[in-house]
Structures are given as structure tokens and as C-alpha cells.
Design goal:
binds flavin mononucleotide; 159 residues; alpha/beta; 5 helices
Amino acid sequence: MNALVAYFSATGTTALAAKTLANAVGAPLYEIKPAVPYSSADLDWMNQRSRSSVEMKDKHSRPALADTTAPVAHCDVIFLGFPVWWYVAPTIVNTFLEAYDFTGKTIVLYATSGGSGLGKSADGLSISAPGAKIVDGRLLNGHFSEAELKAWVDGLHLG
Ligand SMILES: Cc1cc2nc3c(=O)[nH]c(=O)nc-3n(C[C@H](O)[C@H](O)[C@H](O)COP(=O)(O)O)c2cc1C
């Protein structure tokens, strides 16, 4: 399996899960970085006018990326991680998917959250990666060992 572990993380939680996953599968790690990082004010979900609230209310919003250097072309399987925002993936994950060609590739979702599941994340992302197979993976809330994550990935039979 030629894999890449990509992730977006605004406050570091998903980043930790992504690092363990990359070690577990022996794959390179790629951080999806926004051109303009999210400040804590941007992330205030109590404020309807905060950047994250405004972006997440508009499912067509596509926050700009800092770079488009992910080695996607070399991979068959992309593990794609993000924090759950308003029950789905942040729209910058759509920006990431639309920046590359994922045709024929398998995208396995993983996420961290305050408790919500992946919900309709896959539906919101599939429009941005036509031709890819999206696997509705799992939440990685809490601590996972590399062995646990390897067992999960082995169970997906990705080839
Ligand atoms: C704007 C925003 C919206 C969020 N919406 C949800 C949500 O709908 N359900 C949930 O369980 N957690 C929600 N959270 C909490 C994050 O999913 C959780 O803290 C996540 O682990 C953060 O990951 P990160 O540190 O990688 O950014 C939200 C956080 C933010 C900033």
C-alpha cells in the first residue's frame, strides 16, 4: 500500500492522531496548512461572525491553502484527517481535495471531535473528489497506540 497521511489541525489534536497513524502505517505525513492560520478568535463557534462560523455556514467556501505540495500523485491511499466542525469536515479540507487529482485513489477519513461522529463528512467531501473512493473511517478521539491503529488499518484490507 502506497499511503499518505494528510491532516488539517487547528489546535493540535488531530495532528497528534495523524502522527501516530503515520508511524503505524509507515507513511509520510503532510499537514494541510491554511494560507492564513486560524486564530483562537477565528475558532470561536459561539460567535456567529467568527471566521470558522462564516466559512462553515457557506459550504462553498474554500479557504486558501499555504501550499499544494502534498505528494498525492505517488499514493493509492490517502488517510485524510480533520477536526469535526459543525458535524462535518472544515471546508479547507474541500480546498485540499480540489487542489489535486484523486481519481482512482482511496481516501480514508479520520477525525477528532468534542464527541460528535464523522456524521455527513464523507458526503460533503465526496463532491470535491469525484472519482475517488471515500472510506468513512473513524474518530480518533483519545489515545491510540500505533499497534491499535495498525490493527484498524489492516482490518480495512486496503491492499
Ligand atoms: C469551529 C469549531 C466547530 C466545532 N464543531 C464541533 C462539532 O460539531 N462536534 C464536536 O464534537 N466537536 C466540535 N468541535 C471541537 C473539535 O472537533 C475538537 O476540539 C477537535 O479535536 C479539534 O481538533 P484540532 O486540535 O486538530 O483542531 C468544533 C471546534 C471548532 C473550533
